[in-house]
């Protein structure tokens, strides 16, 4: 039950971090690999210095009961000789500009091209890359920046870009027509690649961008939030409302992504976050460490108790997910879901 657990997510992930969780008796079963594992932010590659042998690393993690989830973004570096760029160009998969040439936008690796996930042919092209990538022992995929986000001031691609969508979803249209479903279609294609790699296993995909129906393919987290009390507060209504909107598996970056948490904020957020359907800590590179023990003994104990509480409730949470799967009900539900017999007094 991959997703019922607390995920540790740092930029420099070592199995040592997991061993520390084990030694300290704090549950943690998934390591998340943010973009830094890649070679120069090129999707489907590994940084040779830090990840010379990903398969052995993953085997080592598996041997101590830990899974790993790896990021894939839609922006593909425009670079001669890079196998994904070459294959995509040969197969004519990139989103085009109004003049018919591939659109180039700036993201982490610099100039990038973007697969047109509105076409089934192109989703299959991506899914095959995912299938091959999974053979490194990858347990799940994390899709980020799939709004699609650019690092330039316009934030996303021009609305005049052209997608060659399949006829059943609208055919050839400009980007404004498909913008809102792009992220979901990427998650779908990633999901389909995981199925291709192993039909016996339930795929796990996390996506930042989504749409009505995304829950069929992926979980969602609430994006690059801030380490402050307001964002802790907002994360409650966001998770409840995502549930009411059909996405049962969601949660925020516990402790906040940007900025430094304080011991008090981190402990409180973990107390709440351990009961969210998707429960994961994550923080931006360059912030202070956000491991439970980074904030002193009291905070560590608060986190341990919160996460052990989640594990005690695992069977119940599993049941909620099963009911959600069958009936589409939220996993984290607002109080009024408790029915008419509950009399509430709010002070
Ligand atoms: C995109 O297409 C729609 C029709 O589907 C049209 O109304 C709109 O003006 C177009 N936008 C751009 C920027 O080309
Ligand atoms: C849960 C939460 O507070 N999410 C916020 C994280 O930050 C993004 C952007 O900075 C906001 O849009 C979210 O509301």
From TrEMBL:
Keyword Iron attached: no
Span of the signal peptide: 1-15
Keywords of the record: Glycosidase, Hydrolase, Signal
SUPFAM superfamilies assigned to the protein according to its UniProt record, in alphabetical order: (Trans)glycosidases (SSF51445)
A biological process from GO: carbohydrate metabolic process
GO molecular function: hydrolase activity, hydrolyzing O-glycosyl compounds
Pfam families cross-referenced by the UniProt entry: Glyco_hydro_31_2nd
All residue ranges annotated as the Glycoside hydrolase family 31 TIM barrel domain in the record: 14-320
Tagged with keyword Signal: yes
Taxonomy, superkingdom: Eukaryota
Family listed: Belongs to the glycosyl hydrolase 31 family.
Name of the protein this chain belongs to: Glycoside hydrolase family 31 TIM barrel domain-containing protein
Organism name: Triticum turgidum subsp. durum
């Amino acid at each position: 039950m991959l997703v019922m657990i607390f995920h540790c997510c740092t930029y420099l992930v070592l199995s040592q971090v997991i061993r520390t969780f084990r030694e300290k008796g704090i549950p943690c079963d998934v390591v998340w690999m943010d973009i830094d594992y890649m070679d120069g932010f090129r999707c489907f590659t590994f940084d040779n210095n830090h990840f010379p042998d990903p398969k052995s690393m993953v085997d080592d993690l598996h041997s101590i009961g830990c899974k790993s989830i790896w990021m894939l973004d839609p922006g593909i570096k425009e670079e001669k000789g890079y196998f994904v760029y070459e294959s995509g160009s040969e197969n004519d998969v990139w989103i085009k500009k109004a003049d018919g040439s591939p659109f180039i936008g700036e993201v982490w690796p610099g100039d990038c091209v973007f697969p047109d996930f509105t076409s089934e042919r192109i989703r299959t092209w991506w899914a095959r890359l995912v299938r091959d990538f999974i053979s490194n022992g990858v347990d799940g995929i994390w899709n980020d920046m799939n709004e699609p986000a650019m690092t330039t001031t316009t934030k996303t691609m021009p609305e005049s870009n052209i997608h060659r969508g399949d006829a059943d979803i609208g055919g050839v249209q400009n980007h404004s027509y498909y913008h809102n479903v792009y992220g979901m279609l990427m998650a779908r294609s990633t999901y389909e690649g995981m199925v291709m790699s192993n039909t016996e296993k339930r795929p796990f995909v996390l996506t930042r961008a989504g749409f009505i129906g995304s829950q069929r393919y992926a979980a969602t987290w609430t994006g690059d939030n801030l380490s402050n009390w307001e964002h802790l507060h907002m994360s409650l209504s966001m998770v409840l409302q995502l549930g009411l909107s059909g996405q049962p598996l969601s949660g925020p970056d516990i402790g906040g992504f940007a900025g430094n948490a304080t011991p008090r904020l981190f402990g409180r957020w973990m107390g709440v976050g351990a009961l969210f359907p998707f429960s994961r800590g994550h923080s931006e590179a360059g912030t202070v460490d956000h491991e439970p023990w980074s904030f002193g003994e009291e905070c560590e104990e608060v986190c341990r108790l919160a996460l052990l509480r989640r594990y005690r409730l695992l069977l119940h949470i599993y049941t909620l997910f099963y009911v959600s799967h069958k009936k589409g009900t939220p996993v984290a539900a607002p109080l009024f879901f408790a029915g008419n017999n509950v009399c509430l007094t709010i002070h």
